[in-house]
Amino acid sequence: MNGHEMMGRVTGTGCTATVIIGAFLAVSPDPVEAATTGLAYFGLAGEKAAAKALSPGSFQIALLDALYEMKEEDVRGGAKIQV
Predict the structure, then answer these.
(1) 44 close to 34: Cβ distance less than 8 angstroms
(2) 21-41 pLDDT tens trace
(3) Cβ atoms 41, 79 nearer than 8 A
(4) Which of 15, 34, 47, 54 is spaced 20 to 30 A from 26 at the CA atom?
(5) Are the C-beta atoms of residues 64 and 42 closer than 8 Å to each other?
């Protein structure tokens, strides 16, 4: 499971997760797969942000940057999805 504890310390992460799931639903015919992959993507972005951030304020900005910078190969190599 991807993510970081700092994700719970900033406002807006739940809303952002919902938007990301919606985006993945727009391109995947399987809603479970879309939600799972979307949350893994978001959690991975949280991990990348936490590696750069020193506090919740810098984490929030780093999370937005990580979402913007994420590449398909990052998700394929870093997503921790358990079946």
Answers:
(1) no
(2) 999 999 999 999 999 999 999
(3) yes
(4) 47
(5) no
